From TrEMBL:
<dbReference type="InterPro" id="IPR035994">
    <property type="entry name" value="Nucleoside_phosphorylase_sf"/>
</dbReference>
<dbReference type="GO" id="GO:0008930">
    <property type="term" value="F:methylthioadenosine nucleosidase activity"/>
</dbReference>
<dbReference type="GO" id="GO:0019284">
    <property type="term" value="P:L-methionine salvage from S-adenosylmethionine"/>
</dbReference>
<dbReference type="GO" id="GO:0009116">
    <property type="term" value="P:nucleoside metabolic process"/>
</dbReference>
<dbReference type="InterPro" id="IPR000845">
    <property type="entry name" value="Nucleoside_phosphorylase_d"/>
</dbReference>
<protein>
    <recommendedName>
        <fullName>Nucleoside phosphorylase domain-containing protein</fullName>
    </recommendedName>
</protein>
<dbReference type="Pfam" id="PF01048">
    <property type="entry name" value="PNP_UDP_1"/>
</dbReference>
<dbReference type="GO" id="GO:0005829">
    <property type="term" value="C:cytosol"/>
</dbReference>
<dbReference type="GO" id="GO:0008782">
    <property type="term" value="F:adenosylhomocysteine nucleosidase activity"/>
</dbReference>
<feature type="domain" description="Nucleoside phosphorylase">
    <location>
        <begin position="192"/>
        <end position="325"/>
    </location>
</feature>
């Protein structure tokens, strides 16, 4: 094994206890020693493991670990259950795997060793997908890509991604990797919800670079109808209120340009969202329907936020996008006036989502950005607004809007296909 190249590691782990989850979060955080040497894929069942193998390239090679889940009351119950399910796979006899535990006994692999910077992975046997599934290069077309109507992408974990994950049915959630889960929304009695499984993903870092990478990864790994960016943004104080929703029809990269004689000259660089989709959503009737859906979805734990949801406005306008957080008086106001006075918000990712729509036309991918105003890009940024936690409510507001829009997007897609 080439020690200079990263390997692939697949871990089947139910991680039922809080201690298990906390341990793996520590082990697999982006700056861990393990992540510096390996791409790590965590799945919670053998079905999801088999599905993973069906969605990767046939030259994908990996080390397989099974988390034993030792409990004082029922030692290695998880590991035994996982192995029992593995034995049902047609390729089980060709599969090399290793039992993993924090309380290793016998031939178990001690998971605590993974925290060691000098730990060597070349002691383990690699599995190869092509060999396991007996797929030749010429037959690779049978390695089908899973289809989802939606993938939701967020730049941040806290307050943006976690609100989606908290509202997925626990039994439907499947961890695909450290950044990605799939699942279905918890059932809601007063809203005609989107009911199927969908993807929820998060970037490793904020910004356009990670947004571009994450978007490309999602489009490569899945057949998607919609890629939606959910999250928070800065707003133009003269045009929007705190917690309003901005759904851009165009995104302007204000950092693009040239440096001439020591002076930065901005150049126009725009990315469009599907005009027909925006026109479909941006009607009085549908905006009213989206807002009614958002109100219906407010849960009892957050009902003190209902007045903000009731007062929200949805703006279909232009978003500015750049590589830095802005805390400068009048910056956004001046920028907008220089761009035909149309900009309503500013953030750091949406240009990549607009470009994904433009670049993946062959995939029939449609993209949407749904962001809630959390500040006015000035020096008065704060953690609270009238006693309300700003980031948390803004992230929640975006989640409500995305969830309320999803059934409408299915209607649009079905109408679009009929017209074609």
């Amino acid at each position: 094994m080439d020690s200079k190249s990263k390997i692939n590691i697949v871990v089947i782990a139910k991680a039922n206890s809080d201690k298990d989850a906390a341990f793996y979060e520590l082990l697999l955080k982006h700056d861990s020693f393990m992540r510096s040497k390996a791409y790590v894929y965590m799945v919670s069942s053998v079905d999801d493991f088999a599905n993973l193998l069906g969605n990767v390239r046939i030259d994908f090679s990996f080390i397989l670990f099974i988390h034993k889940g030792n409990r004082a009351s029922n030692p290695s119950s998880d590991g035994n259950s996982i192995v029992k399910s593995l034995k049902k796979l047609l390729y089980y006899d060709k599969l090399a795997y290793y039992m993993l535990s924090r309380d290793a006994v016998g031939q178990d692999i001690d998971a605590m060793d993974f925290l060691d910077e000098e730990y060597k992975y070349d002691q383990f046997i690699l599995n190869n997908v092509g060999a396991l599934l007996e797929i030749e290069e010429k037959d690779a077309g049978i390695n089908k890509i899973e289809h989802f109507d939606f993938a939701i992408l967020t730049a941040l974990d806290k307050d943006e991604n976690d609100v989606f994950r908290a509202n997925l049915q626990e039994e439907s959630q499947t961890i695909i990797d450290l950044q990605t889960v799939k699942g279905a929304f918890k059932k809601h009695s007063s809203f005609n919800d989107y009911k199927d499984n969908f993807i929820v993903a998060k970037q490793q870092e904020m910004g356009m670079v990670d947004a571009a990478f994450s978007s490309s990864k999602l489009v490569h790994n899945y057949k998607l109808d919609y890629l939606i960016m959910s999250g928070v943004c800065g707003g133009r104080k003269s045009k929007v209120k705190m917690f309003d929703i901005i759904i851009p029809k165009k995104v302007y990269d204000f950092s693009f340009g040239s440096l001439e004689d020591g002076k930065f000259l901005q150049r126009d660089l725009d990315a469009k969202i599907d005009d027909k989709l925006i026109s479909y959503l941006n009607t009085t009737e549908r905006i009213k329907k989206i807002k009614a859906g958002m109100l219906a979805l407010v849960d009892t734990l957050n009902n003190t936020w209902e007045p903000y949801v009731r007062n929200v406005e949805i703006h279909f306008d232009v978003m500015a996008c750049g590589p830095w957080v802005v805390k400068t008086e009048d910056f956004l106001e001046t920028l907008s006036q220089e761009k035909n006075n149309l900009i309503r918000g500013l953030e750091m990712e949406s240009y990549s989502i607009g470009r994904a729509y433009e670049l993946f036309q062959d995939n029939n991918l449609k993209t949407l950005v749904v962001k809630s105003v959390m500040d006015y890009t000035d020096t008065k940024k704060g953690d609270e607004f009238n006693g309300v936690p700003v980031n948390k409510l803004a992230g929640y507001m975006s989640y409500l809007c995305v969830r309320a829009i999803m059934p409408m997007l299915i209607e649009y897609r079905d109408q679009f296909h009929k017209q074609k």
